[in-house]
Amino acid sequence: MKSQKLRCGYTTGTCAQGATKAAMQLLFGIRKADGMDEIWVELPKGQKQRLRIWDIKIEYEDLSSIPYVVSCAVKKDAGDDPDITDGIFVYSKVTRRDEDGRGRVITVDGGEGVGRVTKPGLEQAVGEAAINRIPRQMVIKEAEKVCEEVGYEGRIDVEISIPQGEELAKRTFNPRLGVKGGLSILGTSGIVEPMSEQAIVDTVYLDMKVKLAEQNTEKKYLILSPGNYGLEFLEENYGIEETKVVKCSNFIGQSIDMAGELGCTALLFAGHIGKLIKVAGGIMNTHSAQADCRMELLAAAALRAGFSAEKASGLLDCMTVDDALSRCTKEERKSLMEQIMEKIKQYLNLHSGKEMTVEAIVFSKMYGLLGKTSRADEIAAGKLCFLSAEGKQKRGDE
């Protein structure tokens, strides 16, 4: 397979971060408007990104040359990703309120075109602007840095807006998820990775090939995760560095097929419940455009776990899996996840056949580890016992 290198872009979260940094520097005179053509920001994982600054507006106090409101924008660049937000302008308006008297306070809210959360289970609480945790942190970080630099101890209000957001949001899953009135400000890494399916599949294949070639054992294994949440979970809970993990995106089935083609003997998938629950229904491409039956699978698992029909059907009205799990007691979550993990294992085995051991670890941001199949920890530790043709066990690290 050949891999075509596609150009990465940056997220709406990065746009909000850059626009806030520029607006704060203009607000306190660190830079002047006629010299503010571009700005550099440090992304959540340490990379540097250069951003062009657009549409600067400055409001001054009466009879004064001191700005008290500054607004500017960064234009979203999705790279080679077919993203409907490509080319939109993300604005940050920062307002200084010297009279607050409570010491330094920084608030972040959404304005025009940024959605509001209307149902529980999302990263932000009901009523809050749909500005996810990491973009919110990066915006606050930029405002804090400028305040520290100039010694400002008053209040700063940051408002993020997207003039086209309300109309564009109608073409997304936001209304269905309970985000009304606009787009979400997203991004865990700050970078948009191109979503050309063949390019991703080719990249996954090459990554698998390299990682398997590095192993000296006869029986070879791979650890895979659909996305950044899984990479973080594995590093925090198992000490597995992200360089040791294959990022397989939504392509669960194709990853199993390619791993078999490359002679892999064992696989471990570690992923968020919102993705991997689909595997419990035999869905091997977890992209929402392919299938979204998360709540139906939860309700079916609930019935198998002995929930009442009324409680199981109530899960169908939830917007996210975390929301559904929050409606269950700890013991109910345990019995529910036992059913889900059993089905995940069943369909992974069905797809892989008898030549490969495939295990799974499932977690959520709200509840941490939710479930794992019987031999997942062995693969995570690189000490899986593989079944030989005679039915005897042989350690993968011997």
Low-confidence sequence ranges: 385-398
Largest sheet: 6 strands, mixed
Helix coverage percent of residues?
25-40%
Distance between the termini: 32 Å
- Within the largest sheet, what's the order of strands? 2-3-4-5-8-6
Describe the structure.
Helix 1 packs parallel to helix 2, helix 5 crosses helix 7 and helix 9 packs across helix 12. 41% of the residues are buried. By secondary structure, this protein is an alpha/beta fold. Helix 6 links the parallel strand 11 and strand 12. The chain is 34% helix and 23% strand. The strands form 5 sheets. Strands 2-3-4-5-8-6 form a 6-stranded mixed sheet, covered by helices on one side.
Question: Can you lay out the helices and strands and say which pair or pack?
Answer:
Elements: E1 9-10, H1 12-27, E2 38-42, E3 48-60, E4 67-75, E5 89-97, E6 105-110, E7 116-117, H2 133-150, E8 155-161, H3 165-169, H4 174-177, E9 179-180, E10 191-192, H5 197-213, E11 221-225, H6 228-238, E12 246-247, H7 252-261, E13 266-272, H8 273-276, H9 294-304, H10 309-314, H11 321-326, H12 330-352, E14 357-364, E15 368-372, H13 376-380, E16 385-387, E17 393-395
Parallel strand pairs: 6-8, 11-12, 11-13, 13-14
Antiparallel strand pairs: 1-10, 2-3, 3-4, 4-5, 5-8, 7-9, 14-15, 16-17
Helix pairs in contact: 1-2, 5-7, 9-12
Can you tag this structure with a few keywords?
five-stranded mixed β-sheet, 13 helices, 398 residues, disordered C terminus, alpha/beta, single chain, 34% helix, globular, 17 strands, six-stranded mixed β-sheet
